[in-house]
Amino acid sequence: MTTDRRELLKDVDTVVIKVGTSSITRGGNTVCTEFMDSVAEQVRRVKDDGKKVLIVTSGAIGVGLAAMDAHPKPREIPIRQAAASVGQSILMQRWSESFQKQGLLIAQILLTLDFYSDREKYLNLRNAIQTLLSYDVVPVINENDVICVKEIDAMFGDNDTLSAYVCSKMDADLLIILSDVDGLYDRNPKLFPDAKLIPVVEDVSSVLGAAGDPVDRVGTGGMKTKLKAAEICHDAGCSMIIASSAEDDVIVRAVRGDDVGTIFITDTREPKKSIWIRGARSSGTIVVDAGGAKALRNHMSLLSVGIRDVSGRFDRGDVVDIVCDDELIAKGITDYSSEDAFRIRGLRSDRIAEVLGHKSYDDVIRSENIVLM
Ligand code: GLU
Description:
By secondary structure, this protein is of the alpha/beta class.
């Protein structure tokens, strides 16, 4: 496997950039406009290069606490929840101003980690994000800390993990974690002045013990959560770079394949979603005709016109077997329930609304949710 960054990153299409609290506030307690302007400007350049970009932003709690002049004790969660709601709107206003200067529109998305395990939430999120990207909008994501106490408490979640899950579910090719550390060191650099930066990590499991767990003063993500993020990215076939937000043009250079920070590379060729679909229990079966089977084998979506029969009970978001002439040819995540799929079998897509009284999608199963067996 090559470790040449330019080679590794030459086909990158979707980039997720995670910006930590300490980067946004530059160690102070209000947002650093100059830094946010610089992120927006670099994102514009990356987008001008034809790539799709999503931002995962931290900083809501830190900025909100400062605005409210609140100084909670470590376990005083309600103040942090309140601060998150104050800080989030300040944060989005600032992001919006910075991106406006680049002629870019942004969208706010607040998530709880259950989008990862709940198929329906995931599908809704994915459809919304894909639509935003198709309109050239930059999604700006944060945890919904107001209702998500576990994340605030930093016991189970944080924005490092969240950004890796976003990469995994959105099939991103590269996650860039911008932080106040400039990469992974062979030892904790805060304790050992001679610690050396590791430029490339091929096997994240081999470095799990390399760094201690320095917890930032204002953010919640130490190195441990970044390595966990690297593991999630690895399994999803996504590369990850940890780099210092203080470096000039760090985003543009990281995407271009310059030697910034630490890159975690992955040799997983099959996206995790495909592996998941392949192994998932099917809730029912869709029988397709020869035309439908041919379309699937050509990596196209499954349309209602190609459906002959439906058996079993399933809902939108469930995995189903796709069978032709008694042979299992594919599995996929359906966008229609068994009942609706049965009612529209054999019909052209433009008749779906008339028959069902509603239409969610032209495709019964979209190509990106189909795995050939
Ligand atoms: N979601 C938190 C915030 O916006 C930050 C979590 C983190 O630092 O990872 O303040």
